[in-house]
Amino acid sequence: MKKGKTNIVFQGTKEQEEQLLDFISRWKGEKGALMPILQKAQSIYGYLPIEVEEMIAEELNLSLEEVYGVVSFYSQFTLNPKGKYAISVCMGTACYVKGAQLILDELSKKLGIKPGGITPDGKYSLDATRCLGACGLAPVMVINGQVYGKLKVEDLDKILQKYN
Amino acid sequence: MELVNIKINGIPLSVQKDFTILEAARQAGIRIPTLCYLKGINEIGACRMCVVEVKGARSLVASCVYPVSEGMEVQTNTQKIHDSRKKTLELILSTHKRECLSCVRSGNCELQKLCRDYGIEDERHYEGTMPEPYYDSSTGVIVRDNSKCILCRRCVAACAQQQGIGVIGVNDRGFDTHIGCAFDKPLAAVPCVSCGQCIVACPTGALHEKDDTGLVWEALADPSKYVIVNTAPSIRVTLGECFGMPVGTNVKGKMVAALRRIGFRKVFDTDFAADLTIVEEATELIHRIQNGGTLPLITSCSPGWIKYCEYYCPELIKHLSTCKSPQQMFGAVTKTWFAQKEGIDPEDVFVVSIMPCTAKKFESRRDEESASGYPDVDVALTTRELGHMIERAGIDFIRLPDEEFDRPLGDSTGAGAIFGATGGVMEAALRTAAEMLMKKPLTKLDYREVRGTQGVKEADYQIAGLTLKVAAVSGLANAKKILEQIKTGQSEYQFVEIMACPGGCVNGGGQPIQPADVRNTTDLAGTRAKALYEEDRSLPLRKSHENPAVKVLYQDLLEYPGSETAHEILHTSYEKRQKY
């Protein structure tokens, strides 16, 4: 799936930058340094926006496209921060068979964002995930750790109201 | 070199141990089709067109990356192989925008040729979901049309390996895989230098220059316009390729005849402006050496290089010669001196230049370059675009008689001619600088050390008691090393020539596109350059400052090289550019 690009303004701090630069300095010059650096950067910032990727490209003497090519390839990397309320819809086999796609489509419509995206106010983010291991409750979604099972499209409004 | 014995199609061969099957087959005169393979820069075995059978191997192997070994037996031409290649082509076609009738690469498309060779009759065999189309003409110079992209990555290799830039690459994965810029920004929003090496690397019509021939036809049809054309030094030795002539054929006379038949009022030679550039630049070099100016002086003829400098090493802008490039000098002189001499309003003069280069389109639009109050150059066309114009005009190019350039701006010297090859600007400048310094005629005109297609060439010359240390560099990846030395103050050079494209303008991004099998087996830049050096040898005048038109121009208008008027008309400035 194509990765959605963020519309959230970058709010990185000086401390985060120092932490990242310090990590990069330890890996600089080593072959294959880009992957661990990207993983670290994502753990620091929560996502990999252009500002962070530019920093990495500059430090490793790579082109920004080379960094972005790797980020857009691996599903573990995200270009979007998580929202205040992070919604994950399980797309594992059981949930999918039980209509998870309808749930995802409806959420996407209600929030006005694609899976992998975040609302402009930073409130909600939406992701499609692999099996969450709660197949007995299919279809399932998780909002900030709270699991909602046996979902129906009609339930969504009520659930979303709790997260306002 | 150690040899191994192998058999290809039953033919016994002794080949170098480090050869791939593809290289071994080439040596034996057996052609294996390829799509993604570009020697030296893109050897990735991705397209599967070059598959062959190796005795004992589990499946078909990609010959472009499969090494030979003692006793190996290879088949390149079996039914199984044909079926596999055919399937590969059908799958490529399933996501390919098939507008072959009008496509810019029709007749010169590697995919089209293979489909014909392999008899793909059912183009829609695997038709289904199409990837999201993406068409980017944001630069107004290079157009990217992903609907015709076959993901061979040749453009990516040209940009990253050859030029060391890497503004395009492979984004996303699986069915969504596509060639794009970082964050899928348009090309105009990333530090692309417009060199066009991606275009000449592309096997299909997914990359091409913005077609500006319409603007030229329009101007030619407008009776109020005085349309003047000038052709860059290298065009005469490459244009013939558009009409199937051998690489390295000099078609100067036919080119002039064709331009006249298309309807240009004056057919002039950019070589004149190249000579003028040399007189100004040699003066600048001597001035900087004698007055403690910034050294090394770096040439400014290559607009791809200039844009690179502005994006990637703005701290070196002070090293750049302030001379406009020959294209821009030509336009500036035409719209000032020539227009005045002929009594034409510069507003009505329409200058078209035929360039080996896509970055020249960008250069012609630089705001700071309009000596007459109007842009120095109105339209810059590539060699390929001129080829198309000649076709459309119904001109039988091969049978044209030879004609001469118009005067006075068609006057040229051998020094102007060699501008088209890497090291040529350096050699031309040295000829003039040496005479300026020695104040007597130069006997030895050839500076052989700076000739040839190597990426970096260095030489020391003793001229009038001065030791001049020079370097001629081509291909931006090669330039990086020299630039690093200059940045850190370790460089001892006084004069450096940099051309963005490997081998110089003869191998520019606007030149006729040769398919990969020709590119991989021919020294395109070297063969084309040889024709320019022959032209240089054959001309009576071989020093820029002896160009009669240049002399008259100084008498009439500019007074002397480096004068205030010369600076107003012929010099320019550069600006730091933000990368993202």
Topology readout:
The complex is a heterodimer of chains A (164) and B (580).
Chain A: H1 14-27, H2 34-45, H3 50-60, H4 64-73, E1 85-90, H5 93-97, H6 100-111, E2 124-129, E3 141-143, E4 146-148, H7 156-161
Parallel strand pairs in A: 1-2
Antiparallel strand pairs in A: 1-3, 3-4
Chain B: E1 3-8, E2 11-16, H1 21-27, E3 51-54, E4 61-62, E5 73-75, H2 79-94, H3 110-117, E6 135-136, E7 142-145, H4 154-162, E8 169-171, E9 178-180, H5 197-201, E10 207-209, H6 213-221, E11 226-231, H7 252-262, E12 266-269, H8 270-290, E13 297-298, H9 303-312, H10 326-342, E14 349-355, H11 359-364, E15 379-382, H12 383-392, H13 414-417, H14 424-438, E16 456-463, E17 466-474, H15 476-487, E18 495-499, H16 516-519, H17 524-538, H18 548-558, H19 564-570
Parallel strand pairs in B: 1-5, 11-12, 11-14, 13-18, 14-15, 17-18
Antiparallel strand pairs in B: 1-2, 3-4, 3-5, 6-7, 7-10, 8-9, 16-17
Helix pairs in contact in B: 8-10, 8-14
Please indicate the count of domains of chain B: 3
Helix/strand-derived class of chain A? alpha+beta
Task: Domain count of chain A, please report it.
Answer: 2
Helical percentage of chain A = 40-55%
Helix and strand element order of chain A = HHHHEHHEEEH
CATH topology of the largest domain in chain A: Glutaredoxin
* Overall CATH architecture of the largest domain in chain A: 3-Layer(aba) Sandwich
Mean pLDDT score of chain B: 96
Q: What is the helix content of chain B?
A: 25-40%
In the CATH scheme, the class of the largest domain in chain A would be: Alpha Beta
Biggest interface goes to: A-B, 18 and 20 residues
How many strand elements of chain B? Answer: 18
**Which stretches of chain B are low in confidence, meaning pLDDT under 50 for 5 or more residues running?**
none
Number of helices of chain B: 19
Structural category of chain B: alpha/beta
Distance N terminus to C terminus of chain B? 48 Å
- Count of individual helical segments of chain A: 7
| Biggest beta sheet summary of chain A | 4 strands, mixed
CATH homologous superfamily identity of the largest domain in chain B? Fe-only Hydrogenase (Larger Subunit), Chain L, domain 3
Q: Provide mean pLDDT of chain A, rounded.
A: 92
